[in-house]
Write a structure and sequence with these properties.
157 residues, globular, 5 strands
Amino acid sequence: MKIPKFYFDTSIFNFALADDVPTEREITLRLLEEVRGGKYEVFISEVVLREINRAPQEKAVKLRDCIKKINPEELILDENTLSLAKEYIDKGVIPPKYEDDALHIAVASVNNLDAIVSWNFTHIVKLKTKREVSGINTLMGYKPIEICSPQEVIENA
């Protein structure tokens, strides 16, 4: 059986530390446990690391430790990724101010991953984004990508 290949954006690691949202934190910790158990292959990109580096030092250290525990593969932002992210922005799927969100989606799409897993319901995990990303991906020669929350991924949610 093929192991699903998931891209985790920064929100996954933030919610693993989020004491103020205990339900989402618990779901995230269960997801990370399933990753450690070999259920999913996980990828991040330099965008995740850049966003983490913007956090206060103490939090950034905890976020990096969280990432190390699941040992994801880091994907590189190449010309195809940058071009696809620009297309998402140019077509109004993602606002220009949130270019990193477009990059998260694009790097997962270009690298032919199965899904993007995110807690970002503002720009990533929403019906408009799912539909429009699928259309743009198809037009640009990439397969549609699943976009979902951790709750949709974990067993026995």
